[in-house]
Every structure is written in structure tokens, then in C-alpha cells.
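INFO batch 0412 | record 1 of 1 | parsing
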Amino acid sequence: MTPEPLTASAPIAAKNPITRTFHGDTFTDDYEWMREKTSPQVLDHLKAENAYTDAVTAGQEPLRQAIFDEIKARTVETDLSVPTRRRGWWYFTRSVEGKPYTIQCRVKARQTGDLRADWTPPVIDPETALEAEQVLLDGNQLAQGQTFFALGGMALNEESNLLAYCIDTAGDERFTLYVKDLDTGLLLPDVIEGVFYGLAFSPDSSTVFYVVVDETWRPHQIKAHVLGTDPAEDTVVYQEDDPGMWLGFDLSTDRTKLLISSGNSEYAETSVLDLTAPAAQVRLLVPRSLRLLHGVDLLPGADGAAVITHDYQSPNNMVSLAGLDQLGGQTQPAQWRTVVEHQQTVKIEGTVLTGTHLVLSVRRDTCERVQLIALDGLGTDAQQAALEPAFEDELFTASPTFASLEAPLIRIGYTADFTPARVYDLWLEDQSLVLRKQTPVNNYNAEDYLSTREWAVAADGTRIPLTIMRRADLDTSVPNPVLVYGYGSYEASMDPGFGIPRLSVLDRGVVFVIAHVRGGGELGREWYLQGKKLHKKNTFTDFIDATRYLLDTGWADPQRLVALGGSAGGLLMGAIANMAPQLYTAIVAQVPFVDALTSILDPELPLSALEWEEWGNPIEDKEVYDYMKSYSPYENVTAQAYPKIAAVTSLNDTRVLYVEPAKWVAKLRELTTGEQPILLKTEMEGGHGGASGRYESWKSRAWDYAFILDALGCREIVD
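INFO prediction complete | emitting C-alpha cells
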């Protein structure tokens, strides 16, 4: 471990106490002044924190560079995606060595009448452009002169001659919308500021639909922009006024209707707008009054039917079929026809339609899988059994990534912890599976690594799944240095997946463990419900119990154990730092949600009102307030010896504001009785995902891993 420079002096944050009072409880906050993002005092403080962090970690720079070089050397930088066919064109993405951003391209597809031939993607040389290859967008050109760049979304019109796209040059996920004429390569005069995710053209190409956010960064309006008109005159197609609902839309499978959805983590509402009828009005399909979580796919054709994935008396979801005349404000889910029944051991994540099949994404034994059901006889006694393609890995992730009415196949993305991403095409006629690509990786042999599943037991008897990754030749007869990662919120599952940066950790003799704690979605809806609202502490105690399991079973060296988590997983890091600091050598909290109660008590802050369905509403409910107050990391920092901690954040993050880790670090540093450094690293030009571009992303990952490896005393690769 690198000794900290004796000359490094930690910034001492000024105290400017303010008080807040809810439900008879008064809390004094000395560091709330840091919320003034444009204040010179705040910016100077963040810069001083960065300077201190740089000084303390200066000895890690060679390790950071080594990790970056390893990531770069293993990455095949000049590469391209498998082309995807849409409306007579093959679309694909190129990456080029030395360039940080991808390039969006297309070539014209042939139409011979032979479906297999026409839908077999062309083989393209990553080093050479095809004849008549067209560059749609070059992120490297668009990013010139910008300190940050992100592409927010793209949409093509039916004729495939117009491309709408959004870019963010600040990191705050507020995008600018542009429309490009692909025949001329020129931009149309239509430019719209302040756009969120979600774009679509009308069938006649006259109109672009997009989403905007309110002052709390909540998507609340869908607008329609008629090309060639003043954006100030854009009409509001739909507005969601409930501050606890998130608004979005999709095109129907036949691209003639707008499916409008408002929802949160507990229920949703779906409406539809027919884009082919100028006088059409938004029509309600499934009302929020039913309190159903659901998704709707519209079957093509004149019958007017919908496939609905929903949780009516079905926590893990079921799939039903209903005529459009059965839907609306008075619809009764009990009268819908069953397509897939509810199962206790299988969670239905969602569906998508082709011209001949219903494609399901399901989760069984913690892993996401793909299933197919033929549309013939759907919802009747003649319905055919679901088919599921088989794969060789025990723990894997398989998900549908492309389906359309026209395509005779679906595309499946596949990966496992030590299987680089693969792309399969599954022909619907005979269910034959064709491997189109496995992402190439330099200097890599999958047989050098192992991934296994073990189960820790929580204090209440609940079994907690652990994914344990390591070098195959690691001596497991003795305790080893361990990195434990966790998330555990929003029903998000930490699914198996290959990552090049992780190899640099494993190659230094570290065991990488993912603790699949309650609050995630790995074991179905109940697993999530047991880790939210008034059960949130299960997330934290599960992680601590998982850590103790690793110690008790001899996996982990008690002197070399580090915890890692980001965003809501950063809340987890803050909680375990307060609850069991003695277990961890170091903790890395990425964009951490560590001042949760302060944020959720202020509905004017970004996304706070939306969070009530995840954490509870502490403004109106004293029980929720007291419960959150008892675990929110910032309020619970106490005079005890904390381990080495690094909080990593971004100034322009709109999901978890920089002020949360800034305040947390100041309070930790004030109260810790230990001697380990408490660090704050702020990316001054980034957003929730950090800096932009793959090389800056690699540098960020190298920084985190170098901090961890240095704390573990694992700086050198193990031969």
C-alpha cells in the first residue's frame, strides 16, 4: 500500500449550520451550503478536494497507467457491430483506434426474395469502408471542441432519408435535438433545446415526437414538432402532472401508433395515439387506477388486440391477451385471456412482437433468458408451448435486442462473466441459432478464469446469491484479497456479463464478488420488495452478512477486503460504512446517493418526488421519515474509525447531485476517529456516468481500480 504524502493536507470545509424540521425532528446541517453549484466558494472547495485527492493518490499513478494500458491492449479498438436490417438498409456502428466515440453507418440492403439470404448481414471489414457505405453520424466530429459529449437517441423516418438525433455537451442529460437530411448530409433548420430521451417520426415524416422534462428533471410532456415550423409552437401531445410519475413513449410494432406510458416502480398507465388519423385523440388503454405494473404490445392487423405483461394478482408478472374494445378506463384484468400464467420461480421481464411470434424475456434461476411463443393460437387452447434456446454457460445473460414484423429472425445478445458479448440470430421458422459475432478480446483466455455461485445466509435466514469470480489458478486454500460489489435497488439485477477492466483486478490475485442483495431483481419481484421502503435496511444487512460469509468461509483475508458500489449502490456503501466500518479495508462509492433523506424531503430537487415509490414519502409519513433518518448515510456519520474511503462524483450529474458526496466526505472527515484518508474526486465536466468517451471512461475505471488494488496491497500482476 502506498503511504500518503506527509505534505498532503485535507481541506477543512466551512460550517454554515442550517436546520430543517419535519415531524417534530430537527436536524442541523453544517454543509448544505455546498449545494450552490455556481458559488465560487463551492467550486474552490471542490477543486481543493481534487488537489488533495491527487496528492494522496499520486503514488497510484503508475498503477492507474498500467491498468489503462491493459484495458487498451485487450480492447480491439477498430471494430464494428453486427449490421441490423431496418427498412431496406443495414445499420451498424464502427469504432476506430484512437478515436473515443463511435461512428454510425449504413449500407443499402439487397432484396432478392430469399429471406435467409436477404436477412443474413453482410460481412464487413472493420478496417475498410464498404462501397457506398454512408456515415450517418460521427461522434468524433460532433464532439470536436466539447469537453463532454453524449448521444441521447436517434430515430429514422419511414423513408429512411431523415435522421433525428440528440446530443448532450454538458453531462446533465438535457439534449439538443437535430434533424439531418441523409440524402444531402445537411442539417434541417429545426433545432430544439432541452429534449430528453425518446424520439419518433410520424408515419408521413412530417412530425417528430419528443419528450421534455420539468424543473425537477422529470419527463412530463410529449411534444410534436412539425418540421419547418418554430419549435416554440410545438404542441403538447400528452402531459403528466403527477410528480410521482415518469413519462415516456414507444412506437407500436407497426410504427403507426404512439404508445404513451406514465409510471413508477409500483404502477403505470398506458394510452395510445393513432398517428395515421389526423383527428385522433389520445385513448386510454390501461388506467393507473388499477395500480398495475404493466407493458403493452399491440398486435398488428385489423383485429385490434393487445398483449399485456402485468402483475395483476401476479407479483412475477403474467401475460394476457385482450381486445382493444376490452381496454379503457373500465377494463377488468380478470377478463383478459391468459397467455402465460404467473410462476413463483420465473419473472417475466417483458415482451416484444414479430410477425409470427411473441418473444419473452424471462428470469429464472437469477438469469435472464429468451423464450418464443407462436402467434397462431395465442391465448386459446391451441396455443403452442414456449421454446427457449439453450446456451452452454451455467450463469449467463440472454436478451432479445432486435425484433420486427418484417424480420424472419430475432437477434439475441448473450454474455457471461467470462464470455465476451456475443450476437446470435435465431431464425423463427426452425429456431436455428446462428452466431454472428463474439466480441474479440486480445490477450485473453477464458479458461484462465472461473465464475461460481455461492449463497450466504442473512441474519433472518434469507439466502443471498453471490457471484464469485477469480483466476482459475488462484490458491483458494488460503484467504485472499476480495473486492465485493453491490447495488440492490430499483429491482435492477446485476446480471452476468463480461468486462475487460475487471480482468486487471483478477490478474492481481483479487477475488471479485457480486453480492446480489435484496432490493435488486435477481430472484423476482419479492426479492425487490424485501429491499425497498420500510424494508430497505435488508439491502445493507444482506451486504454485511455476505461480507461476513466471505470471511467465515475463508474466501476473504480480513485485512484485505474492499467494498464498491455506485449511485443507489453508493447509498449502500455509505450505510455499510456507518454500520460495519471495521469489516472493510477501503470503500469506493461512485456517484453515491448518500444524502438520501435531504434530497427526498425536497420535491423541487431533480427526481425527488419520483423517488417516493422507491423509498417512501418522508414528507407526509413520519414512519418513513424516522426509518430513512435511521439509515441515511449523511445523518448517521458518527465518531468512529472509518476505513479509507473514496467518493467519486461529477459536477453535472442530475441523478445524484455532487453535493451529496461532497457533504458526506466533509462530515466523515470531521468525525472519523481513524487515520485513513477520506477522499472526494469530482469530475468537473461529467455527468452521472462520469467523463465521456471510451478513453476517459477507461481512465475513470483505472482510477477506481488502482485505489482499490493499492488498498488491498495488490499492485502487481500475479504470474
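INFO post-check: The CA atoms of residues 180 and 187 lie 4 Å apart.
INFO record closed
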